[in-house]
Amino acid sequence: MRFFIHEKHDPHMGTSISKEYDVIVVGGGMSGICAALASARTGARTAIIQDRSVFGGNASSEIRMHICGASCHWGKKNALETGIVMELELENKYLNDSYNYSIWDGVLWSRILSQENLDCYMNTSMVSVDADEGHIRSIMTYQMTTEQAYRLSAEIFVDATGLGTLSAFAGAEYRFGTESSSEYGEKSAPDCEPMMLSSWRRARITNLQKVSLSRSMMCSQGTGGSN
């Protein structure tokens, strides 16, 4: 006996779902988490868009890079992240004294999921931006696990993608690399010519935005860049 599936296509399948918020944060790393929590706590209807299955970015179980931006790996005395970051780290210390990264994922997930006024979209990639004269009206996203497209609108958008993807898609002017300490008088910045992105990151942006960079300059005094 031969078995086969005979289906009739539903014309309503595959259409996008539209939702409106006060604030939309694109990117679920530590900066995006803090921005989304801070926004929701003021009473603003907030959404956080994360293209991975866990929150935390480089600090998640996928990359396992501990939070050390302020102290530079404890090289700066009495320097550390405070505010929401410390709040999350204290919660992690209480629940996860062994600093297991998978449990840390759960700490971040639980805090976001329990936050009032905050919707989270996991495994959801931003695919396009609708912007008019410098004002972002909405973004199109696609959630891989549900195969559902969303059109998300807001008055305020926060670019926490790590590479400035939202800003670039919206047509904003941007620059690559790390500026010299002489440009803005930053003591912690390298004393060298502007450093361009590493080859792999340059290639990733080239594929996304078709951006061509003519050179890649490394600084002998140190390296830098955003996570």
- Percent in strands: 15-25%
Tell me the number of helical segments per DSSP (H or I, 4 or more residues long). Answer: 6
- In the CATH hierarchy, the third-tier topology of the largest domain is known as FAD/NAD(P)-binding domain
Distance between the termini: 57 Å
**Strand/helix succession:** EHEHHEEEEHHH
- CATH C-level category of the largest domain: Alpha Beta
| Name given to the CATH homologous superfamily of the largest domain | FAD/NAD(P)-binding domain
Helix content: 25-40%
The residue-averaged pLDDT reads 80
Main pleated-sheet profile: 6 strands, mixed
Shape: globular
What CATH architecture of the largest domain would you give? 3-Layer(bba) Sandwich
User: How many separate structural domains?
Assistant: 2
Structural class: alpha/beta
Low-confidence stretches: 197-227
Q: Count of DSSP E strands? A: 6
Strand order within the widest sheet? 3-2-1-6-5-4
Q: How would you describe what is shown here?
A:
The protein has 227 residues and is α/β, with parallel strands linked by helices. The protein folds into two domains: 153 residues, FAD/NAD(P)-binding domain, CATH 3.50.50.60; 50 residues, no CATH class. The protein is built from six helices and six strands. The chain has a six-stranded mixed beta sheet. Strand 4 and strand 5 form a beta hairpin. Helix 2 packs across helix 3. The longest helix is centred in the middle third of the chain and has 13 residues. The chain is globular and about 70 Å long. The C terminus is likely disordered.
